[in-house]
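During the reporting period, our protein records have gained a structure token line. A sample record is set out beneath this paragraph:
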Amino acid sequence: MDSCGSIGGVNSHKGDTDDYKHEVTYNNTLHKVSSEMLLGLIYGLVNPHTLIVIIISCVSTFLCSKDMFAFKLETKGIMSILSLGTIFPIVFTIGQSYKRREEALQRIASMRGNVMGLYWIHRDWDPQGPVGTRANKMAGACSNLFDALRVFLLTKTTDRQEALRSVYQCTSSISLLNWELTAQPAEGSSDFGPRGQCPPTHASRANQYTRFIINDFERLRVIRDYRTPQGLRLFSTLMLHLMPIILGPTFAGYCSKSVDPDLGYGCASSYFTAVIYFMVTLTLFHVQQDLEDPYDDEGWDDINLNLTPELQRHMALKPDASMLKHPGIAIK
């Protein structure tokens, strides 16, 4: 009894230690991610591009002040028109880019599910089980497919024919393995029972999985090749970089004689309005730029394309016949 109790105590202590290590690792990872997000937020608000535009806006406001060129415009109407022509295209393209990113996530999830279903068909009809030649071939073909997919989506040059050829070579290998699934009888047995030749229904399902994989890839390819409206993006970019000069007279006219008088070279309201306006506008512009390409692995919301290690871990799982029985159900 004492030895059993001591063993139980040691195991309990070991479990508590493992839980503590896991909690410490999780807290360290969370702290690291939070620190990176905070630094990324600060850089998103204050970066060289934003600082240059703000400085140009302040210089334009300074040149339009009373003691310089005294060039002012009425603020009624012009601010709304110019802001609408700049912010609306940016917000519209952000919405479209986010939809494209969500579509890409759905297609990657669908491709992963189809690949795992296809692998399990080949694994379960291999006479040697998960360590068989057929299962290993399919695992290698699927891993190569995701590696080729990652290279294709990360390639930024216009000539991506070699990467595209690699993706289709992998799908061609998968299709050939599907043919071997029905061409060779799978004789043998496992913990789940005897294995015969793969039935036509399973072979047809394997071909359907392959078709779905190719369809998902083509949708990912379309998202990669075609972006949000280029004319709209060019217009918003042009207007955004002309606004610091155009709005200088408008910002210079924000001074109030009673509240914030013009001291000769502008007032605090003029420069404060210019800084806040372009900081907000450029932050939206940078968000749109990060969402425009969900595959470039440079923004916060980019898609993780390193899927091969996780896929290989899932393929290494061995089937367990005991999982077919539920403890609460009596199987005769």
Remarks:
- The first helix runs from residue 2 to 45.
- The first strand starts at residue 188 and ends at 190.
- The CA atoms of residues 134 and 199 lie 16 Å apart.
